[in-house]
Amino acid sequence: MTKPAYQRVLLKLSGEALMGDDPFGINRATIERMVADVAEVANMGVQLAVVIGGGNIFRGVAPGAQGMDRATADYMGMLATVMNALALADAMRQQGITARVMSAIAIEQVVEPYVRPKALQYLEEGKVVVFAAGTGNPFFTTDTAAALRGSEISAEIVLKATKVDGVYTADPKKDPHATRYESISFDEAISKNLQVMDATAFALCRDQKLPIKVFSIVKPGALKRVIMGEDEGTLVHV
Ligand SMILES: Nc1ncnc2c1ncn2[C@@H]1O[C@H](COP(=O)(O)OP(=O)(O)O)[C@@H](O)[C@H]1O
Ligand SMILES: O=c1ccn([C@@H]2O[C@H](COP(=O)(O)OP(=O)(O)O)[C@@H](O)[C@H]2O)c(=O)[nH]1
């Protein structure tokens, strides 16, 4: 059997991807399918840390958040990621994977706080670590949290699983003529202002020489193909 291309990866799962075709919330069949993909690579011995987004829950409360103070809304968004992290870890448990949730904001009765050496220990023990509450700071995103935690745990790559199957010359949802890059440098992605990830996340990964792979969360088997180093999605490199 061929070996995985990576030993330790940081997987960013979009919160919105958990909704499936629902307008918001967590779709059971979708989360189970995503966890089955994660279990497949975890069982290959790849050390996996996950940063989960919160868009699926936050979208449901967004109308009520209109006109709200930005920082307050962002803290609500971070709490949404904690809910997703708990759901994800439990779905992993049901599929025989041991996961540990670590939160960037103190919420001790619910989940343990993020402590870097402990996260590293869990990874070495073969547990999946789910990082909740993003960076713990308002005005940031879970993409930036993925870049930050990926750097902290010395991941070999950040895998951004999202609704599109790579980085395009323009937003493919708006421009039908947009074409997909096989690979692109950080400098080009930043200078062209490609919106697939925020500039803070791109800049941090660039400075840390931490490559990013953007690929589809919807396409069956895509995560495994990425892990095996096969041609899938778009590589963003130094
Ligand atoms: N140049 C681009 N290439 C690919 N996707 C893009 C681009 N510009 C904007 N997008 C949009 O970015 C979205 C992914 O970013 P985001 O909404 O942050 O995802 P997530 O919820 O997975 O974090 C895609 O659904 C896509 O419509
Ligand atoms: O470090 C962080 C990470 C997230 N958020 C908030 O949490 C929300 C949910 O995260 P994100 O939009 O990145 O989730 P996704 O798009 O992946 O579902 C964001 O909109 C922010 O309001 C934040 O304030 N700081």
UniProtKB/TrEMBL annotation:
Name of the top EC class for this enzyme: transferase
Regulation: Inhibited by UTP.
Domain of life from the UniProt record: Bacteria
Binding site for ATP: K12, L13, S14, G15, G55, R59, T162, Y168, D171
Binding-site list for UMP: G54, D74, T135, G136, N137, P138, F139, F140, T141, T142
InterPro entries linked to this entry: AceGlu_kinase-like_sf, Asp/Glu/Uridylate_kinase, Uridylate_kinase, Uridylate_kinase_bac
Catalysed conversion reaction: UMP + ATP = UDP + ADP
Sample GO molecular function, one term: UMP kinase activity
Main localization (coarse): cytoplasm
Pathway where this protein functions: Pyrimidine metabolism; CTP biosynthesis via de novo pathway; UDP from UMP (UMPK route): step 1/1
Keywords, in A-Z order: ATP-binding, Cytoplasm, Kinase, Nucleotide-binding, Pyrimidine biosynthesis, Transferase
Record family assignment: Belongs to the UMP kinase family.
Designated name of the protein: Uridylate kinase
Organism of this sequence: Massilia solisilvae
